[in-house]
């Protein structure tokens, strides 16, 4: 089957030929006829399978036939990078059609916003937007969606994870009810199905190789301690002259740290959310043009870029979510090309990696560490967190504690005669020698614990005051009681001005004048 089977407009075919599209991918082969038929659609396919062309080509063909004068299609994407990528692909496909598109996203400077606003005012048939920015435009009356015919949600699962579900429902309220809604997702958890019921009407469903990685990816893993990861990355990168490499870290702090180490020996850039949009676009442009060969980033780029020819993906940290592994690995071996994916697994991550293997339906090869590296931890599918943490001991072996002389099998210490020693005799000299700092702490503790006792002693030393309080209490209850020892009533009392840690201070009785 080829693209001629879809009977696209001749101008659209020219765009496909210019971009080198010859044979449709499985998701394109199944989804395009459904969308051209006007049905709502839920399509599940992982990254790198040609999803963008699957939903854009039939929409472009329909606009080319009808000649829509107003805004016709809205595409929602979770990230700025993905919105820009979709917009660029639309411009390529529509080059000979005369159909315009604009990407709307936050984080840009004033110039970018002016460009976006001008494009909206002049009119664009397709808008690709992030939900947050679009909500702001709708609230300010900057964009009208009355004439919309198509709503497309790309990476719907990612938008759910990022908390955009309520924003999407708000946007849907601005749309005409008579529209075609298309939802694409890399995974299909129950929350996506529940959400789809709210915005789609009697949809068709398509699933392509759910949870599977591309056939052209060679997958392997190293079982390592955290302290071995940085040197292992450098060793791998020195093995050959890679043209395009992505290294994924779990946090932006790790991205920054690894970037500082690698930039001493390699041409590398860090890609994370702290960068301004202009910086991110420059870095991505250099990476696509191969002037930058190594990119270190978080999962923000696991779905937000479409770069053909990435040779190597390194998971510096094992992904927390098995589905994120599929997306990371999906950056390589795109468009039926070949690629390699290497994952670092520490002891803590072994259970997570076992879940990844269950999802992708295969066991990933565990490679021995290269020559010159100390042995890593033993891999176990049910591996968990050791008590001592995950950093390899500097000695390269398990920590050994000095054996106690005469120790019995039960762990109870005994003397050479077999009797249990007294507590004082068993105390080691080391515990007897306290540092000045520990002595200060001990003294401070003793002082704190003795304060209540001091207060009690003060109270015991003032019987006259206690008796005076009893007399006043009895007077308040209007009971008379003869007491020869009762002190004369003081002329004036002062209320306590403060409270101590251990209760209210005793009232101060002024001396009689």
Automatic annotation (TrEMBL):
The lineage of its organism: Bacteria, Pseudomonadati, Bacteroidota, Cytophagia, Cytophagales. This is RNA helicase. It comes from Rhodonellum psychrophilum GCM71 = DSM 17998. One of its GO terms (cellular component) is cytosol. It holds the Pfam family DEAD. Residues 1-29 form the DEAD-box RNA helicase Q domain. Signal peptide: none annotated. Belongs to the DEAD box helicase family. Residues 369-513 are annotated as: Disordered. The keyword Zinc does not apply. Residues 420-450, 466-478, 491-513 have a biased composition (Basic and acidic residues). Gene3D superfamilies: P-loop containing nucleotide triphosphate hydrolases. One of its GO terms (molecular function) is ATP binding.
């Amino acid at each position: 089957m080829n693209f001629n089977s879809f009977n696209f407009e001749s101008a659209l075919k020219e765009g496909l030929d210019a971009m080198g599209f010859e044979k449709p991918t499985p998701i394109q082969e199944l989804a395009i006829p459904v969308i051209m038929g006007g049905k709502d659609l839920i399509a599940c396919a992982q990254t790198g399978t040609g999803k963008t062309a699957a939903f854009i080509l039939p929409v472009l063909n329909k606009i080319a036939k009808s000649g829509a004068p107003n805004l016709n299609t809205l595409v929602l994407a979770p990230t700025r990078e993905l919105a820009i990528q979709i917009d660029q692909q639309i411009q390529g496909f529509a080059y000979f059609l005369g159909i315009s598109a604009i990407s709307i996203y936050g984080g840009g400077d004033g110039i970018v916003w002016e460009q976006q606003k001008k494009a909206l005012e002049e009119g664009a048939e397709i808008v690709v937007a992030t939900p947050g920015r679009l909500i702001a435009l709708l609230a300010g009356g900057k964009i009208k969606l009355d004439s919309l015919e198509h709503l497309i949600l790309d990476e719907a699962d990612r938008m759910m994870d990022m908390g955009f579900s309520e924003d999407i429902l708000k946007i849907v309220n601005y749309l005409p009810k008579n529209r075609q809604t298309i939802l694409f997702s890399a995974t299909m958890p129950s929350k996506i199905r529940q959400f789809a019921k709210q915005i789609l009407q009697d949809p068709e469903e398509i699933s392509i190789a759910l949870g599977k990685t591309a056939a052209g990816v060679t997958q392997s893993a190293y079982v390592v301690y955290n302290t071995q990861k940085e040197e292992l990355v450098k060793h791998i990168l020195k093995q050959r002259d890679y043209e395009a490499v992505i290294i994924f870290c779990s946090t932006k702090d790790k991205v920054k740290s690894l970037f500082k180490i690698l930039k001493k020996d390699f041409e590398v850039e860090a890609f994370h959310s702290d960068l301004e949009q202009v910086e991110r676009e420059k870095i991505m442009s250099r990476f696509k043009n191969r002037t930058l060969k190594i990119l270190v980033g978080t999962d923000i780029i696991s779905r937000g870029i479409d770069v053909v020819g990435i040779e190597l993906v390194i998971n510096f940290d094992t992904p927390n979510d098995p589905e994120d592994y599929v997306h990371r690995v999906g950056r390589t071996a795109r468009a039926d090309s070949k690629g390699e994916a290497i994952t670092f697994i520490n002891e803590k991550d072994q259970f997570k990696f076992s879940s990844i293997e269950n999802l992708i339906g295969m066991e990933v090869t565990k490679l021995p560490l290269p020559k010159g590296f100390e042995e890593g931890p033993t891999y176990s599918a049910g591996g968990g967190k050791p008590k001592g943490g995950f950093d390899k001991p500097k000695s390269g072996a398990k920590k050994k504690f000095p054996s106690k002389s005469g120790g019995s099998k039960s762990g109870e210490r005994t003397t050479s005669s077999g009797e249990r020693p007294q507590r004082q005799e068993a105390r080691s000299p080391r515990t007897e020698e306290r540092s000045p700092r520990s002595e200060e702490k001990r003294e401070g503790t003793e002082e704190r614990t003795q304060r209540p006792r001091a207060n009690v002693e003060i109270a015991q030393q003032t019987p006259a005051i206690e008796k005076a309080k009893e007399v006043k209490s009895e007077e308040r209850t209007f009971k008379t009681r003869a007491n020869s020892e009762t002190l004369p009533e003081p002329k004036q009392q002062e209320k306590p001005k403060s409270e101590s840690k251990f209760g209210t201070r005793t009232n101060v009785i002024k001396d009689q004048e």
